[in-house]
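Q: Protein A?
A:
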Amino acid sequence: MKKRDNDEEFDEGLLPASTAVNVGKFVEYAKGSVVSKTLVDNSAGTLTLFSFDKGQGLSEHSAPFDAVVQVIDGEVEIRIGGKPVKASEGEMVLMPANIPHALKAIKKFKMLLTMLRAK
């Protein structure tokens, strides 16, 4: 763990501070699988990178915090409160706290999931 100037501890994780990176290169596709890597995890939230092979997904669930999906590559269908939303490379989708959501890869795709813990 590292400390900020205000003595707050934080985990830099896989994402180096003050460095430009191509986030899509942190995770590879795996046939018939979902792969995830947590890049940042601290009191404010998490950044988790996922790759999904075509047809793979996450079953319906909810989270106590807002989350943002940023599609890095490919195409996905996200169901939020039963409503389907399609998103592709360069697009973002807000998934509100406590609303059930699920997703399925229309094509193989990568996403950066930002979970917002703090207000």
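Q: Protein B?
A:
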Amino acid sequence: DAHVVETGDSGVSLLYIDRHLVHEVTSPQAFEGLRLAGRSVRRPELTFAVPDHNVPTTDRSGGISDPVSAMQVETLDRNCAEFGITEFKMDDLRQGIVHVIGPEQGIALPGMTVVCGDSHTSTHGAFGCLAFGIGTSEVEHVLATQTLPQRKPKAMRMTVDGPLPPGVTAKDIILAIIGEIGTAGGTGYAIEFAGEAIGDLSMEGRMTVCNMAIEAGARAGMVAVDDKTIDYFRDRPYAPSGEAWEAAVAYWRGMVSDPGAAFDAEVALDAADLAPEVTWGTSPEMTVPVTGAVPDPAAETDPVKRSAMESALAYMALEPNTPMREIAVDVVFIGSCTNGRIEDLRAAAAVVDGKHVAEGVQALVVPGSGLVKAQAEEEGLDRVFTEAGFEWREPGCSMCLAMNDDRLA
């Protein structure tokens, strides 16, 4: 309620936005709209920009070869300079994927409303933020007014209780959740992730879970603030300091659900039942344990789901009941705003250390930010990967959406 400017008779509220993150893909038309209307950016100090979708992850010394990508990045540079917005440019060590650099820099803090023209803005909910993706016209609205009309979502609590079994990670938790409720299961909801398994996760693990709330159809995902949250932001560049830090911490500790709080929906999973997960098809809900097999559509009673499974099998050229461990891979990509942080790279390096990529397989590692890349190199992780036959790249979104040259075909 502290962020509601007013609520109309229709139930739509005008919401004040604390932090606005922009990148080169969904912002050009928004800035041009301001220009055509003769408007300025209402609070330029609350908007932060970074190029990430189109930037090359190979050698950057020659700039960006694709003319469209180059134009988008150059346009972002010009817009930020004209409107007085802080930008972490392509040659800045702090550059990286917007949802990696936001927490890394302490830009998105507990209790804030955070928006970005990108679906995975839900990542920042790991810190007790209300964070969600918006469209280009909404980007313009936030730039011009620092507000956004929004209808309050319903509330769902997703509880994962008990300790995680060995080898089960945050990514497995969220894939299991999506497998349970489906990609539309969270539609219309903001999901609070709770329970012992969620509380035991590192902040990077919580970011992974909240990041993929959007794949469950949710408007946002979030985790209550605790000591881990507060410790994460200590000494971050844009986090408060001194007396302001103490005041902020006191406020942040209130970012928890009240005892007995009512939710519109409750879903519970037992952590003991979770296993390392892998998706076999064309949707995140098509997930099975890595020890499992490709499911048979004939066993699916829902005709819509059965048809989707049949289409996915045809597209993936897979046969029902094939053990997942027998399916060959062509490309291995480690990175993205879901799993491109230092904790992810350490975990992957521990697996590949002393081994080598199989013949005929392309494997690449794309750190989530320049700072993640620098830290990984300081720890020698880059050597572990390159000696195992991986390509060690520059930070960016890369193969997640393939708007640069990192494409499968």
